[in-house]
Structures are given as structure tokens and as C-alpha cells.
Amino acid sequence: MGPSLARVLAQDFLPLKSRCVKGLAEWILSSPCRRNIVVLTGAGASTSAGIPDFRSPGTGLYDNLQKYDLPTPQSIFSLDYFRKAPEAFYELARDLWPGLQGYKPTLTHRFISLLDKKGRLLRCFTQNIDGLERLAGLPSERLVAAHGSFDTATCIRTGRRVPAEELRQAVLVGKEGPQGWQALREKYGGLVKPDIVFFGEDLPAAFFTHRRQDFSKCQLLVVIGTSLSVYPFASLPHEAPGSCLKVLINREDVLDFSFDVSLLGDCDEHVQELVSHLGWQEEMSELGGAD
Ligand code: OAD
């Protein structure tokens, strides 16, 4: 058995935050954690890469969509609105499409990748569609892209698969012209959408399969950079067994779930401290992630 939760939380002579991070490091290094760590991520894991999250007041995406004149900010990811007015999503897709803006993985992404290389990570479930986990070297079999990805695309009227590269080119060109998205719509008999999950759409089958398979084995759950406000993803922490240590690393507390350890603040900063307690600085540097 690894150190008990009481010991994790009650190491004297250290400030509360360091005490928690040190205890967490000790816990990770202990044997029960072998391939038993599940990480859940949200947009906060990518903000230091320059990608805004959704709901932070002022800076979040949903506070900055005025130019699209949407009925509600969430309409940008609604199938009904996309059918009526696809321009808005297609324009935004130029900013969101992985690789187009040159966003780089953050320290947090590299840490998740390192957890895998160290043989500790069972799975990372991400809500993010920026592709930065894989760019940080996390193999696709360790990742559940719960809200889909830009890797594949589908015509929403016929259900026909469309090469994602064809859609990417059309998004770059815009509405008009033989390579634009209007021409693509005519070619495939309906609007073409990347397979990212819009509100009201089903999550990929892998989400449900891994939710069923992984959580019974999970001994450490680390939730990073999410407000946990979108279901069914937000239900995942409830799947973890009672014996599992549940840790939140986020700028703000998440009210709907009671974590054993809450490390509030910037996730990269907490991760950096964790890496130093783990003694993994060299490997992180090799991944290009820590000084
Ligand atoms: P949110 O914007 O709802 O939450 C991001 C959380 O990360 C907030 O609690 C922030 O305070 C926190 N945060 C931001 N930057 C941080 C940092 N550097 N360090 C630590 N914490 C930080 O984003 P998500 O929870 O990912 O779904 O949103 C979930 C879903 O809502 C998205 O996948 C998207 C959206 O609608 C769909 O579009 C289907």
C-alpha cells in the first residue's frame, strides 16, 4: 500500500500547498499507482499555450464571440445553428483547427505524456479539441478525445465520411470559390463538419467504453483545468472508486464534486512543483517542458 490519504494531507512543517504537492508526489511514486492514474483535462490545460478557455469571465471564448452575433455563445457549437448559419463556426474553425495557429503543448500536457512514459498513466480523458496531448507525445491509445477531434469529418446530412484535409482546405479558403466550403457542401450533398462533438451530439463510443473499463482500476484521479460543467464528461469523477485519491488542479474550485486534494491556481505552476518533488525534472526537460 502507498501512503494513506491522512499522511498525504498531514505532512508537517510544510506550507499547505507544498504539503499537498509533496504528498501527491509520494503517492504517485508508490506502487499502487502503476498504470492506475486517470487524468481528466479541460481548456485550462491549454490556456498557457495561448488558447482561451470557454468560461473564464472576460478572456473565455464565450465572452468573445460578439462579432458572430449569435443567439447564445454556445450556439457556435450547436447543430441547429450550424445548419442555419454555418459561416460562424467555419470562421472560428480557422482558429481552432490544430496546427493552423502553431500552438505548442504546455508543461501540463508534457507532464501527462511523462506519466505515460513512466508507466503510471492508465488514460487521459480530454474535453479539448486542440490536439496538444498528442503533440506532447501521448500515444493515441492512452487518450480519450471525449469531445471528438478534427482528425475526421462527416457530412451532417448524409452521414458520409469526408477526408478531413478536404474540409481543412475549404475552411481555409472560406465560403466562395471551387475549393470553398459552399462547393464542398454541394459536392457531398450537405454541410461538412469536423467530428468534434456539438451540443446535443453523442460522445464517441471510446468515451463510454473507457469510462466502463478504466474507472474500476483508477487509484489516482487528477482533474486539470476544467470547470466540470458539461455532461456527461462532468460525471466522470463520480465513476472513481471510494479508495481512489481524487485531486483537482484548477484556478478555481469546482463546486459539484468534493476532491480529496484541491490545488488551486495555475496548473503549470502546480505541475512544475509536482515534477520537482517527483524528481522528474530531467525527463521533463528532455520533453522540452521544464527548466
Ligand atoms: P471552461 O472554460 O468551462 O473551464 C476551464 C477551467 O480551467 C476554469 O475553471 C478556469 O478557471 C480554469 N483555468 C483556466 N486556465 C487555467 C490555468 N492556466 N491553470 C489552471 N486552471 C485554469 O472549459 P472546460 O471545462 O474545458 O464543449 O469546458 C468544457 C466544455 O465546454 C468544452 O469541452 C466545450 C465547452 O462548451 C463543447 O464544445 C462540447
TrEMBL record:
<keyword id="KW-0808">Transferase</keyword>
<dbReference type="InterPro" id="IPR003000">
    <property type="entry name" value="Sirtuin"/>
</dbReference>
<keyword id="KW-0862">Zinc</keyword>
<dbReference type="InterPro" id="IPR050134">
    <property type="entry name" value="NAD-dep_sirtuin_deacylases"/>
</dbReference>
<dbReference type="InterPro" id="IPR026591">
    <property type="entry name" value="Sirtuin_cat_small_dom_sf"/>
</dbReference>
<keyword id="KW-0520">NAD</keyword>
<protein>
    <submittedName>
        <fullName>Sir2A protein</fullName>
    </submittedName>
</protein>
<dbReference type="Pfam" id="PF02146">
    <property type="entry name" value="SIR2"/>
</dbReference>
<keyword id="KW-0479">Metal-binding</keyword>
<feature type="domain" description="Deacetylase sirtuin-type">
    <location>
        <begin position="14"/>
        <end position="281"/>
    </location>
</feature>
<dbReference type="GO" id="GO:0005634">
    <property type="term" value="C:nucleus"/>
</dbReference>
<dbReference type="InterPro" id="IPR026590">
    <property type="entry name" value="Ssirtuin_cat_dom"/>
</dbReference>
<dbReference type="GO" id="GO:0046872">
    <property type="term" value="F:metal ion binding"/>
</dbReference>
<dbReference type="GO" id="GO:0017136">
    <property type="term" value="F:histone deacetylase activity, NAD-dependent"/>
</dbReference>
<dbReference type="InterPro" id="IPR029035">
    <property type="entry name" value="DHS-like_NAD/FAD-binding_dom"/>
</dbReference>
<dbReference type="GO" id="GO:0070403">
    <property type="term" value="F:NAD+ binding"/>
</dbReference>
